[in-house]
From TrEMBL:
Gene3D superfamilies: YVTN repeat-like/Quinoprotein amine dehydrogenase. One of its GO terms (cellular component) is GID complex. PROSITE patterns: WD_REPEATS_1, WD_REPEATS_2. Pfam families: LisH_WDR26, WD40. It comes from Immersiella caudata. This is WD40-repeat-containing domain protein.
């Protein structure tokens, strides 16, 4: 647990790991992470220990890149991969150190729990750009030295509690932390409450902290490194991060990306257009009425569809045989359906004012929710498969959460008709679309309203990307809009389809969700490149309208559409 830090990622967005070239299990923490690969004074390659030229030195650049930066990143990468002899050899031959002795000493102090030494080195640190910068500890622009002290002293406080030394821990809290956190009353109150923990296990649980012998010191060092200039302490796993950015950029720039495998570093990435799904391979015509929804299961092995018929059909994939024809809502249209995250259940919504939970394996009814006063329009599952959320035209129960027993757990109180819903895969966001022009965005964990958004035009569907970052809104004005769900900034717009007066659904798809796909009131299916908004494909699908689309999450070369002509097309 760190002051003011909730995230569990490193500063460069990579998963937590060992710090800056450290390998878990190699000697003591300091020995594992503190090797700076120093160069002896008698270095004979034309470079002195600090990288300054002394003789016939090679060029200061490498194909346009700074030679020192490239070399130090290579040294770190070799150490990360366990090639320590090679890393030391590169350091010795090049004359460049991974980091200076002062930075190495700071790392050692943190990993060994030498808190006085760590604070002493921190006190001597200078700000980036200072004339005294030298090779010592350099703080990044905007870094707060007091915040770094709080992190160090908080770790010290927790470790003393873990050692069952409450008197010394209380002294640290009163004389070292309180002066720095005088205005952070909630933090001081929380830390004070930890003094009451009866065991180390209780402390770790309440503080969300894994102890001095866990990863807590490495996590602390990682957070501290965010405040230190990257020129003296490289961000963790820097080469891996740069290579990841290269791959992401190549995928982003691939207009017909259909290969789910990560791009090779050996060559530039491109996908041939001939592999892009652009022709109708199969038509399914078991339904007798208009179709309003078609959805692949999360594993891509089944497909479910519904519409004006009183039943839903579950198909096997890829042979598309009918597995179940479930009479979901007797003598009533089926407005919508949703697969549970484990694909074992399906919830359906009907114009008969009911929502029902079904066993997707057997087709048996699990439970019917209490009757609504108006049709149920939409449904989504929570990530744990234990609860679901319904949207209804019933303003008294327009947005509700239920358990599998059919018990209502919570009712959001805003009085509007809900027409469509989306929940983020990470379980943080819940988005409800009303019958007017508004989106209501909730924190699904706290159930609090985060914000409301007036689109100025009526939306027809909403969906959230698999990384839980982006919200896709389809609208009646013939435009789909990609929005950053946190900042609310519009990232991209997609045009070329028509909205009309009915629900037209859109979604994400393809390898790495590289595309946006949408039905259209004029019967077309339209596909755009997600990042650029460039139209990739446009084809006739249904007559008179294409109502819904679904891209197979397990097969980037397969998507399904359905429409008013009673057909599903693959």
């Amino acid at each position: 647990m760190l002051a003011e830090v909730d995230g569990q990622e490193t500063s460069n967005g990579t998963p937590r790991g060992v710090s800056n070239g450290a390998q878990v299990g190699e000697g003591t923490p300091a020995e594992a992470a503190g090797r700076s690969f120093k160069v002896p004074p008698e270095s004979t390659n034309g470079l002195s220990q600090n990288g300054k030229t002394t003789g016939h030195a090679p060029s200061s650049t490498y194909l346009g890149h700074d030679r020192e930066e490239v070399t130090r990143i290579l040294i770190q990468a070799l150490a990360d991969m366990g090639y320590r002899s090679a890393a030391e050899s590169v350091s010795r031959d090049s004359g460049y150190e991974l980091e200076s002795p002062t930075v190495s000493a700071f790392r050692t102090a943190v990993l060994d729990g030498s808190w006085a030494r760590a604070e002493e080195l921190l006190e001597g640190a200078v700000l980036a750009g200072s004339q005294r910068q030298g090779n010592g500890l350099v703080l990044a622009v905007g870094a707060d030295r007091n915040t770094m002290r709080v992190w160090l002293r908080q770790q010290k406080f927790l470790e003393l509690l873990e050692l069952r030394e409450p008197t010394r821990a209380l002294t640290v809290l009163r004389s070292e932390l309180t002066p720095l956190c005088s205005e952070q009353h909630s933090k001081l109150h929380f830390l004070s409450s930890l003094l009451m923990c009866q065991s180390a296990e209780d402390l770790m649980s309440k503080a969300d902290w894994d102890g001095a012998h866990g990863e807590s010191r490495r996590i602390l060092l990682s957070e501290l490194s965010r405040c230190i200039s990257p020129s003296v302490m490289l961000p963790e796993h820097r080469l891996a991060v740069l290579l990841g950015q290269v791959k992401e950029s190549q995928i982003t720039n691939c207009l017909f990306h259909t290969n789910p495998e990560p791009p090779s570093l050996y060559s530039d990435h491109t996908c041939d257009r001939c592999h892009f799904p652009s022709t109708t391979a199969l038509e399914l015509d078991e339904h007798l009425g208009e179709l309003w929804q078609v959805r692949f299961s999360h594993n891509g092995r089944r497909l479910a569809s519904c519409g004006m018929d009183p039943y839903i059909i579950i198909w096997s994939v890829p042979d598309f045989k009918v597995l179940h024809k479930i009479p979901a809502h007797t003598n009533s249209h089926v407005c919508n359906l949703a697969w549970s995250p484990d694909d074992k259940m399906i919830v359906t919504c009907g114009k008969d004012h009911y929502a029902k939970i079904w066993n997707a394996e057997t087709g048996d009814l699990i439970n019917a929710l209490e009757r609504f006063h108006e049709p149920v329009s939409s449904c989504v599952w929570a990530a744990d498969c234990q609860t679901l959320i319904t949207g209804s035209f019933d303003k008294e129960k327009s947005l509700c959460q239920w358990n599998l027993k059919g018990e209502r757990l919570y009712t959001w109180t805003r009085k509007h008709r809900t027409e469509d819903l989306a929940v983020s895969p990470d379980g943080h966001w819940l988005v409800a679309m009303d019958e007017r022009n508004w989106l209501h965005v909730y924190n699904f964990v706290t159930r609090e309203l985060e914000y409301e958004w007036d689109l100025k035009v009526r939306p027809t569907s909403v969906s959230i990307s698999q990384d839980s970052r982006f919200l896709l809104v389809n609208k009646t004005d013939g435009e789909a809009q990609l929005v950053d769900i946190v900042s609310r900034d519009t990232i991209q717009k997609y045009q070329g389809h028509s909205g009309g007066d009915y629900t037209i659904r859109s979604g994400f798809g393809g390898a790495d969700e590289s595309f946006v796909i949408s039905g259209s009131d004029d019967g077309l299916v339209c596909i755009w490149h997600k990042s650029t908004g460039i139209p990739v494909h446009r084809m006739e699908a249904h007559h008179p309208r294409c109502n819904a689309v679904s891209w197979n999450p397990a097969n980037p070369c397969m998507f399904a559409t359905c429409g008013d002509d009673h057909k599903i097309k693959m």
